[in-house]
Design brief:
With 106 residues, this protein is an all-alpha fold. The chain has one domain. The chain is built from 4 helices and no strands. α1 runs parallel beside α3 and α3 runs antiparallel to α4. It starts with a helix and ends with a helix. It is found in: Cell membrane. This is QacE family quaternary ammonium compound efflux SMR transporter.
Length: 106
């Protein structure tokens, strides 16, 4: 169950980061509220995951899911342009997250 909490925490991190972008510097009330709610949910889920999983495993995976998700959302929905070298490092980030999980023994 801890892994499910961790993945959901990462997904909600992507959600709140996206809402923060849409809040335009916290100037749009609805998106600001969604940002704060998303943060709370993400942190609560991360806390539940770290009850079982070690912090040295859970935190980098949580931030990695958030980083990869933010890249994908940025490219697809906000028209962010990444150069080929950035894509290579993005792939390396994904490989690193998978590697951490596979070698953790959890």
């Amino acid at each position: 169950m801890a892994w499910i909490y961790l993945v959901l925490a990462g997904i909600t991190e992507v959600f709140w980061a996206t809402m923060m972008k849409l809040s335009v510097g916290f100037s749009k009330g609805t998106y600001t509220i969604l940002t704060i709610l998303g943060m709370i949910v993400s942190f609560v889920l991360l806390a539940k995951a770290t009850k079982v999983l070690p912090l040295s495993l859970a935190y980098p995976i949580w931030t990695g899911i958030g980083a990869l998700g933010a890249i994908i959302i940025g490219v697809i929905f906000f028209g962010d342009k990444l150069n080929p070298l950035t894509w290579i490092f993005t792939i390396l980030l994904l490989v690193s997250i998978i590697g951490i999980k596979l070698t953790s023994g959890n």
